[in-house]
Amino acid sequence: MNTIGKILTLTTFGESHGLAMGGILDGFPAGVDIDLDELQSFVDRRRTGQAVGSSTRGEKDRVEVLSGIWQGQTLGTPIGFLVRNNDARSADYEEIAKCYRSNHADYTWEAKYGIRDPRGGGRASARETVARVVAGGIALQSLKAIGISVTARVEQVGPLHDAAVEEQERLIAQAAAAGDSLGGVISCTVHGVPVGLGEPLFGKLHAQLAAAMMSIPSVHGFEYGDGFEMAAKRGSEVMDRFVKREDGTIGTVTNHSGGIQGGISNGEDIVMHIAFKPVPTLMQEVPTIDRDGNPVTLQPRGRHDACVLPRALPIVESMAALVILDNYLIRKTNVL
Question: What is the pLDDT of residue 195?
């Protein structure tokens, strides 16, 4: 399952400490203008070293487009790209190769495949998401051309809700100083979505978005619209009443449904909330067991984020963009 999408598909490849991360974006329409400088700027938002508590791994994340784009336009052929790994320190993971880290994929990956790449977590590492961000950055430029925008923001860090950036950074710095980590919530809004995206019954738009977001490392929760708050309310409290606007279009007075009804977009903003668990790698001694079941104590080594939320914003935007553009293309195939 290294591929996502129906018409617009993304297949990613690479391991955290391998030669490169990369992807093949297929099914992308021809003739779309792509600004590679804008794409690089978008990918740079995910880079390390730009936020408090960020990993110090110094990857430049330069995007190398191998195919599918010529003279700034897409050709309709597969868009192949690479992002090379230049600052891996595999020696930091020699001890980890012999044991299982808590809340990581070490044990489950080895139990499933009988082998794993312990260097930085291999393919289970969040390093893989750089390929998603390259593809998402390309998709976002296509969506922008048709009037659709995707914006994510950090809504919660640890217990802090809607706090100023300075307060968020202060809390992250405290956790990092203690060798600990923090989770939180990212909210994402997709504006300008036309009516009719989504494929009931088993391809509902919110189900596709949920699957895309839940595939991001460290994501443990997803909701759209009022989400879990709806469970405590009456139907009369969350009813989105339809009205006819002055321009003749149909809309709703409120948006408790988060822009999706019956699994299909209704033209209102799609609003999502994505919950991230605290980073499982701690810069402190952690008790665990080795591959033979013997108790061991892991010593803090490596370079890790104390909180992934600031760097996860373009990842969330990318996954939303890929799902929305894929469904936009599907919509064009089933309506004359």
Answer: 97
Q: Decide if 130 contacts 336 (C-beta within 8 A).
A: no
The structure's pTM equals: 0.95
Maximum C-alpha span of the chain? 71
**Helix/strand/coil for 315:** helix
Q: Which two tokens stand for residue 218?
A: 């460290």
pLDDT in tens, 195-204: 999 998 999 9
Quote the CA–CA distance of 250 and 57 in Å, as a whole number: 50
Pairing of β 184-191 and β 149-157: antiparallel
Which parts of the chain register pLDDT below 50? Answer: 336
- Per the DSSP assignment, residues forming a β-bridge with 152 are 188
CA gap 326, 135 in Å, rounded: 12
Alpha-carbon span 288 to 138, nearest angstrom: 42
CA angle 274–276–277, rounded 5-degree value: 150
* Nearest Cα residue to 28 out of 56, 4, 8, 47: 8
Helix extents (H) in 45-105:
none
**Predicted pLDDT of residue 335:** 57
Note the pLDDT tens digit of each residue in 103-144. 899 999 999 999 998 888 889 999 999 999 999 999 999 999
Q: Is 169 helix (H, G, I), strand (E, B) or coil?
A: helix
287 forms bridges with which residues in the sheet?
297
Other beta carbons within 10 Å of 165? 12
What lies within 8 Å, CB to CB, of 308 at 6+ separation is: 126, 217, 218, 276, 279
Please, which residues bridge with residue 296 across strands?
288
